[in-house]
Design brief:
Layout lengths: L1 H6 L12 H11 L5 H10 L21 E5 L14 H11 L6 E3 L7 H15 L3 E5 L2 H5 L4 H17 L3 E5 L9 H18 L2 E3 L28 H15 L2
Parallel strand pairs: 1-2, 1-3, 3-4, 4-5
Length: 248
């Protein structure tokens, strides 16, 4: 966390309906010159329909090797040319290693753990995945939602996926220190706590090598929120070692 606190210059989370206090905290810490409201409007307008969903719904019967990704804008290719996000790169990685797993990207920009929890049962029934990648929680932190609620939602999603016969990979996130050390540190820890309690695989920090480096500015899009195209390969590199263990 020290490297993140010292080096992170940009916020990378979805600004979807945050409360006014959260807006003020982020604006003050980042030193933005324009109102955060303008960024909120731009974010919504640049997302198809206000919310961009990439879930496939072609069939009720999926191959045994299906990988289901349930995430937010970091996995939904927000602001990127289609096919350049880390999930499409994952498909190429699988092909290059001659792994037959099919990838279903059910990520939605702006989604929270509560949203993912409500959507997951239908996704499990529809796609019958062998592996579920859960990349949610950043928007919970942005809104200052209770840590216990986020942890409970992640645990419930993990339990539902395991009950459906799927292996689970939990993707961890961190936030800048503007919420105070107790919340910031607690949020960073909760992913590991859930993963340990549920005995599932964990990526400790999804944006390692992107948000915690000196030249973070070059790793993000112009909105200073979402990683750019060049950062997608690093995001995959953070996920792939743990995911590969689950799909052998």
């Amino acid at each position: 966390m020290s490297a993140l606190s010292e080096n992170l210059k940009f916020a990378w989370l979805d600004f979807s309906k945050p409360d006014r206090a959260a807006q003020n905290r982020w604006s003050s810490w980042l030193g933005w010159s324009r109102p955060l409201g303008a960024l909120l409007v731009a974010t919504c307008l640049n997302t198809p329909g206000g919310v961009h969903a990439q879930a496939e719904a072609k069939t009720l019967t999926a191959p045994a090797g299906t990988i289901l990704v349930v995430g937010d804008s970091l996995s939904a290719e927000y602001g990127l040319k289609r096919g350049t996000g880390w999930v499409p790169l994952l498909e190429k990685q699988l092909a290059s290693e001659k792994k037959s797993a099919r990838v279903v990207n059910a990520s939605i920009s702006g989604d929270t753990t509560s949203g993912g929890r409500s959507r997951l049962p239908a996704l499990l029934a529809q796609h019958r995945p062998a592996t579920v990648v859960i990349e949610l929680g950043g928007n919970d932190a942005l809104r200052g939602l209770p840590l216990d609620m986020t942890a409970q939602n992640l645990a419930a999603m993990t339990q539902a996926a395991k009950k459906a016969g799927a292996k689970v990979l939990l993707v961890g996130m961190q936030v800048p220190p503007n919420y105070g050390s107790a919340y910031t540190n607690g949020f960073a820890r909760l992913f590991g706590q859930v993963a340990k309690a549920e005995q599932v695989a964990l990526v400790p920090f999804f944006l390692k090598g992107i948000a915690d480096v000196d030249d973070a500015a070059s790793r993000f899009q112009a909105d200073r929120i979402h990683p750019n195209e060049q950062s997608q390969s690093q995001m995959l590199a953070n996920v792939w070692p743990e995911l590969k263990k689950l799909i052998k």
